[in-house]
Specification:
- The chain is an all-alpha fold.
- The protein is built from eight helices and no strands.
- The termini are far apart.
């Protein structure tokens, strides 16, 4: 079902119409935003920032969400064995690990630094996903599946950002008379 059927055929037709519609250098640069060598340092810096601000639990949840990405994506890649758009002999393209990495790393970083950065995190994830499809590294459904799979991973970082306070107790601000 995941590698055959009407939805897959539609996905393949859509992909063929999109691949190489922008210069390859642009689509490769966009897809590179999902590389671990790019996205993980962003999350690591945000985690350090959060720890320095006394938000250790929030940093931990964001880090755990990122650690769960390969544990979720890799078994699915092995199980489905979906071939790639430009390399039909290669398997393991569903779901997109780069999209998952971008989404969890950038959203996690935004939640740790400022929720106002969430639109930027969404944009970086969308640019990554578009680059992967436009370059022919992934089918459109591969990137959509990654977004759907990783939304639940962001639950705990979201809650930690929303309700978490500094881990250290507040200092007493009342003055003695």
């Amino acid at each position: 079902m995941l590698v055959h059927g009407p939805l897959v055929r539609l996905d393949e037709r859509l992909s063929r119409s999109l691949v190489d519609t922008v210069p390859r250098g642009l689509s490769e640069a966009a897809s590179g935003l999902g590389d671990m060598s790019v996205a993980l340092p962003v999350l690591a810096c945000a985690m350090l920032y959060a720890v320095r601000r006394g938000r250790r639990a929030a940093a931990l949840w964001a880090g755990l969400a990122m650690a769960l990405v390969p544990l979720l994506v890799v078994p699915l890649k092995l199980w489905t064995g979906r071939p790639g758009p430009l390399e039909p002999w290669a398997h393991g393209y569903y779901p997109s690990g780069h999209t998952a990495t971008a989404m969890v790393a950038y959203a996690g970083a935004a939640l740790l630094v400022s929720r106002r950065l969430l639109p930027l995190a969404g944009l970086l994830t969308a640019v990554t996903a578009a680059g992967l499809v436009l370059r022919g590294f992934h089918w459109p459904l591969d990137v959509l599946a990654s977004v759907a799979l990783c939304l639940p991973l962001l639950r705990w970082p979201v809650l930690a950002a929303r309700y978490g306070r500094a881990d250290r107790p507040p200092s007493d601000t009342t003055e003695s008379t």
